[in-house]
Amino acid sequence: MSYDYSSESQRLELPNPYRLQNRMLWLCAALLMAAGVSSLWWARQALQTQSFSLAIAPLAAGVLILIAGLTCAATAARRLRFFFGRKRPHSLAPDLPPGANGGSPEALKLKEYLRQGALTFGEPEGAIQGVLYHAVPHLITAPEMLQLLAKRHVFNLAAFLVTGISFLFSWWVFGTAETRSWIGVLYFAFGAIALLRPLLSNTRAPLSLMSLVGLIASAILAPVAIGLAVPFLPKLGAAFSLNVQTFVMLATALVACALGIMAVLGQLARHTPSTHTSVDQQRLSMSAPPAMLIDELDRILQNEWTERIPNRRYARAEPLTPAGTPSGSFAGELFEESQPMPLSGTVAPSFVSALGSKHHRALVLLDLYATVLLATAAGFALFFVHQFDPLAGWEHNRFSLMGLSLILSLVAGFCFNEASRLWGRFDFESVLTWVEVMGNYQTSRIGTGNELTSRMNTQNDVVRTEAMTLRVWRARIESVVFGKDGPRQITAMFSSDQDSQRLSQGLMSFAKGQSVLVAAGSPEDQTRLQALQQGEQALLAGTPDATAALARTAPAALLEAATHATGAGASFCSACGHKAAAQARFCAHCGQAIN
Fold first, then answer.
1. Which value, in Å, is the radius of gyration of the alpha carbons in the chain?
2. Interior angle at CA 483, CA 93 and CA 11, nearest 5
């Protein structure tokens, strides 16, 4: 999508919302790149001494750490500047090009919002969602993205909490020295596959009734089953113990989900959103095609463009009144939204103001938690590389530190990703206007002028509507988008009765001002009409100079028309000047011979 710049729309130049997270990403990038360079430096020293086996671990670890550091730096670099063009945010429905007619299912949904004066939200499903919406009643009217994130974090939190309790109960209460290593392996595999993988793929954990029963049964029966199978299983010992990794994975993920829920709940509104709309309904009669109302409405809405930015048109239908049909019904509409503009007071928070804000406090804590996890992961990796001895047995090297480093890095990535979703929230305000006309029409012919006495008369076909329905729906809406290219959703609607009445009264005044008569209006028409009028007055006066007067004031074509109107063979008496019949030889008024 291109960036449309206009010097007249300064309000679209929004502050960068990712400023605080970018600072933490730059800090993480510096720490990781320093750790990666240090690891590669140790690999270089090992290669200089021709200790190739000693250089394998620092080389591999250094490359992985550098990749993680460059990823953090690239993410922050892409968001150093934040551009928000005139085509953003996305429209609530597909846009219609200028002059086109049509609509869409999304536009029908928006019309129902205006008609019903209500917004539609999904209802909770399942026991966990029931508990969540009972604990947070305002969540039902929150944006869909917030509801989705809240439900996902609650499911994951419940899954990690139940798994952690089951693991601790199984390991501490029923576990023995022979079975605890295998208990750790069992729960680590379950946590990595069933819990950690959905967490990183932005899906919820598969916590169902059967999985809950399975975790409870595993906590009680798994130690007994493993104890019976221990004689047939290899002895893992302390070298292959995954108990620490399992505990760290469950504990860090549990904290991350808890902070995620806090961040989502901090974005909720403190009050129930408004859903009021305005409608003004009028009964209107006019002697003109009703399509003229749609054209006038188009002109009015264009004069109200926000900062000269064209409205988004979602539906348009012209009321058709075919000339070949003497009567029938019609229906037309025009549905537009003004350019969404950011809510007043939209500023990027500083670190201190974010900690003091309900909306941003949990987001800052989530980013700080991710930064601490990445720094700890880098420290574990460097300690493992520095203490690595390829000549010693594998059981003497602390491979568990690399496992811990990987787990902490994955959880930190999850925290940064979830915080980024909420940092990219933007709230907008705009105006929805929907005007619909419907009714019945009749066609008739109206003539102007007396055909017997007047030499100028006109006739035209007139479309007349009686008691046409005119409805104007209007509402100022607030909408939200997560990420500048994300879908936009209406969060509140506010009535604007004065604007609706003003628009309907303007359309009614326009309709009542239409004329049914046809008259010449150009300057040339006015000149010719004046010449005809003077010629007609001269003819009615009955003077022998009528033709001469007409010749002085009218063009040749008009003189010819006037001569034709008086008769081709007309004559006048030379004595009294009265008009004589075409074949008369004597004047009927004075009796003198006509020459």
1. 43
2. 80
How many CB atoms sit inside 10 A of residue 176's CB? 12
The answer for residues whose C-beta is within 8 angstroms of residue 399's C-beta and 6 or more apart is 384
SS (H, E, C) 301-339: HHHCCECCECCEEEEEECCCCCCCCCEEEEEEEEEEECC
Identify the three-state secondary structure at position 333.
strand
Strand partners, 493: 275, 477
Residue 491, H or E segment: strand 488-494
CA 152 to chain centre: 23
pTM of the entire predicted model: 0.77
The Cα 191–Cα 78 span in angstroms is 33
Per-position pLDDT tens, the chain of length 595: 455 556 556 666 777 888 899 999 999 999 999 999 999 998 888 888 877 777 888 888 999 999 999 999 999 998 887 777 677 889 999 999 988 899 999 999 999 999 999 888 888 888 888 889 889 988 988 999 999 999 989 988 888 888 888 888 887 877 777 777 888 888 888 888 877 777 777 777 766 667 767 767 776 777 777 777 766 666 665 556 788 888 999 999 999 999 999 999 999 887 888 889 999 999 988 888 888 899 999 999 999 998 888 999 999 999 988 877 888 899 999 999 999 988 876 676 777 878 878 888 999 999 999 999 999 999 999 988 887 766 565 555 567 788 889 999 999 999 999 999 999 888 999 999 999 999 988 887 765 555 545 555 566 667 788 888 999 999 999 999 998 888 999 999 999 889 999 999 999 988 888 766 556 666 776 776 677 677 667 666 655 554 454 445 444 444 444 444 444 445 667 666 666 666 666 676 676 666 6
